[in-house]
Amino acid sequence: MTTLHARQSRWRPSILVLLVLAVAGCSDPGRDTYPVSGLVKFADGTVLRDGSVEFEIIGRQPAVTATGQIRPDGTFTLGTFAADDGALAGKHRVAVIHRYTIGTGAERPGMIPESELHPRYRSFDTSGITLEVEPTENQIIIDVDFAQ
Fold it and tell me: DSSP code of 43?
């Protein structure tokens, strides 16, 4: 019995070292995210109170996006691979999508309320917003225009 015990104790440190190396090798530097939070506001200081913000990293295929819901105070926190885990470092195209509450329809039959946000922000291609995410904690203010 002591021979078996001696063999097992020789292998335990080796197995532990292999497990540590395997776990350390599993991190993917292409998936490193950094905290990003911010505020969406109009030029007059009014905040956008509902919707989402989307960041798409430039120059990476397939495209990787980070998304955050805009809270009633105009703030957001981005998540890429999980909620609120941040965004990849680098330049990003930004889209801002405004959602609004539609009532029962009785107050405005057949009509959807107009967005207060200019429609160009709905698309990465037309928003005109490019922002840099740094490999650190990021606080971002996104300035947008009212619909015309």
Answer: T
d(CA 87, CA 20): 27
Provide the residue range defining the domain that includes 93.
29-100+112-144
What 30-33 contacts at long range (C-beta under 8 Å, 24+ apart), as own/partner pairs, is 30/88, 31/81, 31/88, 32/88, 32/89, 32/135, 33/66, 33/80, 33/81, 33/85, 33/86, 33/87, 33/88
pLDDT tens for residues 58-111? Answer: 999 999 999 999 999 999 999 999 999 999 999 999 999 997 655 555 555 556
* Greatest mean pLDDT among 11-15, 16-20, 143-147: 143-147
Number of domains in the chain: 1
- Decide if 16 contacts 53 (C-beta within 8 A): no
Whichever domain contains 45, its CATH number is 2.60.40.10
Domain annotation covers residue 138: yes
- In tens, the pLDDT along 18-52 reads 444 444 444 455 689 999 999 999 999 999 999 99
Give dist(CA 82, CA 123) in Å, integer. Answer: 23
Q: What's the CA gap between 138 and 136, in Å, rounded?
A: 6
